[in-house]
Each structure stands twice: as structure tokens, then as C-alpha cells.
Amino acid sequence: MSKIKFKKSIVVIIFLSMFVILGFFAIQNHQNINKKNIPQTLASQKPISFLILGVDQGIEGRHDKGNSDTMILVTLNPKKEKITITSIPRDLLVQIEQKNKKFWFKINSAYQVGGSKTASKTVSSLLNVPVNYYMEVNMKTVKNLVDEIGGVDVEVPFNFTYHTKFKKGKMHLNGTQALDYSRMRYDDPKGDYGRQMRQRQIIFSIVKKLLNVTSIHYYQKVSQIINKEVKTNFPMDKIIEVGLKYKPALNKIEDGYIHAHDAWIEKVAMQVAPTAELQRVSNQVRKNMDLKEETIVNAETKLNLEQDVNWNSLAAFKNYHVKLLD
């Protein structure tokens, strides 16, 4: 498998955090803010959600569309002063709809067949939650950002080498090293979940450092990186005004992921999520968006009902049946 396939959640959450952090800069440097023309949902400080997509373009010379190797759903609730961050396994089995055609495959392929809009629609259907905005980030972004802020500090959990040699204990990383730190998966005893933990270290290190910066120079540089590297349907020209309103959400960050079971389906390595897990995540996300809990009834939960599998088994399923996309 290509090295660029070991992406990072890093990339993605950073920009959601930045969305709020830029409000912090605004408080110190831009007291006179034009509050006109802000979408009503944002102006009223209602909870909002973002689907953050980390994509292959921009690293090691790749520029084709490819899959979204990172998918993270983030919700912000300024009145509850809370953010939820939910990582979605890239190999998760879902039904994808594009141009009135439906097919079953890995959720990260939704981006390839229909871009950010199809990816957002797929996640919304999977979890029965609204997805208000998307942010699409290429791999150059995290490197440029980390280098711009002078690097980040992490606590390396064990010795390993992935292009860069990492030693257990505290290390200061530049942009290239941060990417390497976020990619390694196969040598981690916790697998992809261990990789996600290392990514979160970098995420929160970046956030902490940005919150302690008061220079307008950094605000301007970060803004330039966002404008250049991020594709989104969010009104970026209003990011400062909205950042002021949503900054309280940074007071509590609750992060997690969809727990899924390994499965071999038509000789393809997949992951499948039990209905109870989809319901748990849906409840969590809907709660932070001030929505009532609803029982999930979708293509994925209906497919689960057709299966004769033991969800408590540690072994990968070999008897989970569905026809995949050819």
C-alpha cells in the first residue's frame, strides 16, 4: 500500500480548531468587526457540524483526486461550550449514493465518486445527523502549518522509525517530522487506533501553541495557509466574526471514534459497525447539536439485521455478506 495512504487526522482537525482560534486573534487585533451578511445559523450561535476530509493531493507529487483517507465529523456548540470530534474508519462499509445509483463499499470512496458533497451526504445518512459544512484539506497543509508556528512538541510513546527516527519521550517536531509521526500504523501495537492517538497529540499541541500566540504576523500567515490549502463551503470571509461567537466551544473537547469490527467481504478487507455503535455515536453527536435522539434506521442497520455474526468475536468476520461495487 502506498505511503501516502497513511494519512492524518491531524490535518483535518487543525482547521476546525483554527476556525475558533482565529476568533481569539480577532479579539486582540480586530475589535471593529462587521457583523453583516453572516449566515443566520452562525449569527445565532446555533450548533454546527463540519465533515473534515484529509485527501491525497499535495504530497509526494500526487494531484489526482483519490480517496479521502481521513474523515472526521466535528460539532461545535458555543452555548454548551463543547466540541465533539468523531473519527470515522476509512474502511467502514457503507452504502454510497451517486447520481441515483447506490452501491456498497468503503466510506472513503464516497469522496472519489462524488467529492465532498457525496462524502457529507454519506456520513449524514450513516449517523442520522446533519452535516452543515465540509472542509477538504490536502497533505501539504499540516507540514506548512507546523513549520509556520515553529514546530510542535509531542510525547513519543515508544521508539520507532518511519522516515524519521522517533525516540520514546518528549520530542520537538518540524512539519515533515509531524507528518511522519502521524502516518505510522503497522508498527504500533494498537494499530490504527494508536496512530489516531499520536495524531491527537499533534493536534492539541498545535492548538495550544496557537492559543498562546498574540502576534498578528501568525494570524496573517495562518489565514494565508487556510485560504490557499483548504476547500470548503464555509464562508471563509466570515471566519473572524464567527470565530468570536464560537470560541467558547474550545472549553471542552470530547473526541472519539466509531468502533468497528474487521471483516473480509469478497476478499476485501473492510470494517463493519454494529448498529448499537452507530446509535451511540449518533446520540452523542445529536446531543451536542441540541437535537433529540432518534433510532437509526438506514441501509447499514438493515444490512446488519440480515447477518448471522457474533459481534463479540475478536476474529475478523468471514461470513458478513453483501455485494460490493465491482
Could you characterize what this model shows?
39% of the residues lie in helices and 24% in strands. It is α+β, with helices and mostly antiparallel strands and 326 residues long. It has one domain (3-90, 115-259): LCP protein (Aminopeptidase). Strands 11-6-1-2-3-12 form a six-stranded mixed beta sheet, with helices on both faces. A two-stranded antiparallel sheet has the order 4-5. Residues 1-17 and 20-37 have low confidence and may be disordered.
List the helices and strands and how they pair.
Layout: H1 9-29, H2 40-43, E1 48-55, E2 68-77, E3 82-88, E4 93-98, E5 101-106, H3 109-127, E6 133-138, H4 140-148, E7 152-156, E8 160-162, E9 164-166, E10 169-173, H5 175-183, H6 191-211, H7 216-229, E11 230-232, H8 239-246, E12 253-257, E13 261-265, E14 268-272, H9 275-288, H10 299-305
Parallel strand pairs: 1-6, 3-12
Antiparallel strand pairs: 1-2, 2-3, 4-5, 6-11, 7-10, 8-9, 13-14
> Which fold name corresponds to the CATH topology?
Aminopeptidase
Mean pLDDT: 79
Count of helical segments?
Answer: 10
How many whole angstroms does the radius of gyration measure? 20 Å
Indicate the structural class: alpha+beta
Q: Termini, distance in Å?
A: 20 Å
The major beta sheet can be summarized as:
6 strands, mixed
CATH architect. name: 3-Layer(aba) Sandwich
**Strand element count:** 14
Contiguous uncertain segments of 5+ residues: 1-17, 20-37
CATH homologous group name: LCP protein
Percent in helix: 25-40%
Strand order of the largest sheet: 11-6-1-2-3-12
**Structural shape:** globular
> What is the CATH domain class?
Alpha Beta
Helix-strand string: HHEEEEEHEHEEEEHHHEHEEEHH
Name the beta content range.
15-25%
How many domains? The number is 1
